[in-house]
Amino acid sequence: MRKPNENFLDYKARIIDPISDSFCAAKWYNATIWLGHGQTTSCHHPPGHWIPPDELKNNFTAIHNTEHKKLMRKMMLEGVRPQECEYCWKVEDIGRNNVSDRVYKTEIFKDADVIAIKDMNWRDNVDLKTLEISFDRACNFACSYCNPAFSSSWVKDIKDNGPYRNIQSDGRGHFIDTAPWAKSAAIHEADNPYIQAFWQWWDHSLSNTLEEIRITGGEPMMHKSVWKMFDWFKEHPESQMRFAMNSNLVPEKPELIDKLIEASWSVPKFEIYTSCETTGAGAEYIRDGFNYTVWRNNLVRLLDESNVRKLHIMMTINSLCLENITDFMDDILSLRPKYGQRSPSMTLNILRFPSFQSAAILPSSLKTKFKERLETWFTDRVNNNAGLYDHEKAHIQRLIDYLDVVKTPHRNTAEEPKLFNDFRSFFEQYDQRRGHNFREHFPSFVEWYDSIPYNRKSLVDSIGMIGDPATVEDYVNDDVPASGVGGWNTEKDQLGG
Question: Is the pTM value of this prediction over 0.70?
Answer without folding.
Answer: yes
